Amino acid sequence: MTHFSETSSPNIPLDVPLGKSVSYPSGYSASLLFPIARAEARRSLGLDLSSPLPFTGWDLWNAYELSWLNAKGLPKVALLRIKVAITSPNIIESKSFKLYLNSFNQTRFETVHQVFDRLRLDLQAILGGDVDIELIGPDQFAGEQIKEFDGINLDKLDVEIDTYEPNASLLKLASAAVNAASGLNDRTVQNEKVFSRLLKSNCPVTDQPDWACIEIEYSGKAIDHASLLKYIVSYRLHNGFHEHCVEKIFMDLMSSCRPKSLSVYARYTRRGGLDINPWRATPDMSEPNICRSARQ
């Protein structure tokens, strides 16, 4: 039986590997993977799990420390990139994913195709849904690019902040005076892309900081930039998994600002050789660029 911790963060099993001293595996083992159900976190957002999700998107994982042995015992390396469908019932606890990947280190595979198939089958089984997998070999490393978010940089604003727990009431539409200065009115549909490098949340198991750059693109009534920056910074003491934080931000923006279209994309910095990049959007929005940022 799985037991859950009595914390403010939803759905955290007590037997989760994260935050515990765990022996590194000597050989391949899919049993190292540890699933965490999405359901409880989504219920905390008021979502009806019997209805379609109010957003589309994916969770993009990059794994930088994948290695195995070929048939002759020679080590091979690759980058692993996976896209997890948001309809999957589970996410993967990150330390368990790291341990699982490390279990490949001293395991022999005849071909890289066997590595690919093993990864795909194991990840689909633990996630309970489809997953897109890409192995990027050393000959392709030079094509891996660093790209920063574009749009309006909210971090240049000079604002006073005193709230460090998520508070949707911070979100405001732009005032009539601000709209007038920008040549807008209450009926104007604003198409805007903004970003901030100041998103910080904390691991709900270990309390370790999770750092991210977040990009928000929307179409609708203009959102007050200062209020949006204050809201982003308000996650600074919040405990939550990456995926849940992005879904909460999406839901709060939809509820408070009611945009016609919305995209929320966060690129979290690397930990344990892994980075996680959740994207949530209304169905009409285009997928974002998946290039990593300099901080990753």
From TrEMBL:
Subcellular location: Cytoplasm
Alphabetically ordered keywords of this record: Cytoplasm, NADP, Oxidoreductase, Queuosine biosynthesis
GO cellular component, one term: cytoplasm
Enzyme superclass (EC): oxidoreductase
Entry EC number(s): 1.7.1.13
Annotated GO MF terms: preQ1 synthase activity
Catalytic reaction list: 7-aminomethyl-7-carbaguanine + 2 NADP(+) = 7-cyano-7-carbaguanine + 2 NADPH + 3 H(+)
Family: Belongs to the GTP cyclohydrolase I family. QueF type 2 subfamily.
Role this protein plays: Catalyzes the NADPH-dependent reduction of 7-cyano-7-deazaguanine (preQ0) to 7-aminomethyl-7-deazaguanine (preQ1).
Subunit and interaction comment: Homodimer.
Protein name: NADPH-dependent 7-cyano-7-deazaguanine reductase
Lineage: Bacteria, Pseudomonadati, Pseudomonadota, Betaproteobacteria, Burkholderiales
Name of the coding gene: queF
